[in-house]
């Protein structure tokens, strides 16, 4: 078993001549938390869409767990264990918190979510759903409709539904976006907990979160890799500092806590 679980070689995406992602080569180590950062418009979400097959690459190769997934469809890579969350929380607002997780667990029955099945049949998933809610700190919210949850708790619910798909690797798109400081701390602790035994690739704007979570960081700018390494390495890179804040390396420390 190789130490690299996800690898891209020359991954490129062009839109009518505009290069959104250009010749990006990544190597994500198995069992690590890997951060993908960069200024707005750097190509981070496009990379996520390419990796999870919501967009086809113009050229290049993507391999997951030793398999070429370049031309696969989103559902196919999800079945292999490569599962993503989205920047905008995606839950069923009129279902209960428990039912949201149960819908994800129903995937185990095959190609259908079984919305027409009797409640008795679907309750076989309740025990596992409650375990997942416990894992993300939502046990006391199980009977509430998802629409009633505060924003930070909705993001925790989304992580629970992602975990219900039993991912080998999770891709988290800005998991702390728009959160209060208290919610950020809660989600950081949650990501650390659910990363045990899994690989995580995350896009995140909050550099303090990146510093506290990520083993390796890839910096993108204008769709290309600018730098890569641990936080100490990339935060002192003059090109990274310039891309974020200007040209003075002395402000790199401020970037980490701003």
User: Could you give the distance between the termini?
Assistant: 40 Å
Mean pLDDT: 86
Architecture of the largest domain, CATH level 2?
Answer: 3-Layer(aba) Sandwich
Strand order, sheet with most strands? 7-8-9-4-10-11
Strand content: 15-25%
Return the CATH topology of the largest domain: Rossmann fold
User: Pairing-aware structural class of the strands and helices?
Assistant: alpha/beta
How many helices? The count is: 11
User: What percentage of residues falls in helices of 4 or more residues?
Assistant: 25-40%
Using the alpha-carbon principal axes, give the shape: globular
Rg value: 19 Å
CATH class of the largest domain: Alpha Beta
Describe the structure.
This protein is an alpha/beta fold and 258 residues long. It has two domains: 1-81 and 171-190 and 199-258, Rossmann fold (3-Layer(aba) Sandwich), CATH 3.40.50.300; 91-166, no CATH class. It contains eleven helices and eleven strands. A six-stranded mixed beta sheet has the order 7-8-9-4-10-11, with helices on both faces. Strand 1 and strand 2 form a beta hairpin. Helix 3 crosses helix 5 (126-135). The relative contact order is 0.17. Mean pLDDT is 86; it is low at 247-258.
Characteristic key phrases:
258 residues; Rossmann fold; alpha/beta; globular; single chain; 23% strand; 11 helices; five-stranded antiparallel sheet; disordered C terminus; six-stranded mixed sheet
């Amino acid at each position: 078993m190789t130490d690299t679980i996800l690898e891209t070689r020359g991954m490129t995406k062009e839109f009518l001549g505009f290069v959104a992602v250009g010749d990006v080569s990544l190597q994500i180590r198995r069992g690590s938390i890997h951060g993908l950062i960069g200024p707005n418009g750097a190509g981070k979400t496009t990379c996520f869409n390419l990796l999870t097959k919501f967009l086809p690459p113009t050229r290049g190769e993507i391999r997951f767990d030793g398999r070429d997934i370049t031309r696969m469809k989103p559902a196919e890579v999800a079945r292999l264990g490569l599962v993503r969350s989205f920047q905008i929380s995606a839950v069923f607002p009129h279902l209960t918190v428990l039912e949201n997780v149960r819908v994800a667990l129903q995937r185990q029955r095959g190609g259908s979510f079984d919305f027409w099945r009797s409640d008795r049949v679907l309750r076989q998933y309740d025990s596992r759903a409650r375990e997942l809610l416990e894992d993300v700190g939502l046990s006391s919210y199980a009977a509430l409709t998802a629409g009633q949850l505060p924003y930070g708790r909705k993001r925790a619910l989304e992580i629970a539904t992602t975990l219900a798909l039993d991912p080998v690797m999770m891709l988290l798109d800005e998991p702390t976006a728009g959160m209060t400081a208290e919610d950020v701390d809660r989600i950081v602790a949650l990501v650390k907990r659910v990363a045990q035994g899994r690989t995580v690739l995350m896009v995140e704007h909050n550099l303090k979160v990146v510093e506290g979570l990520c083993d390796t960081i890839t910096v993108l700018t204008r769709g290309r890799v600018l730098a890569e390494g641990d936080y100490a390495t990339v935060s002192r890179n003059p090109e990274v500092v310039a891309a974020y804040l200007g040209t003075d390396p002395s402000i790199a420390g401020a970037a980490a806590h701003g």
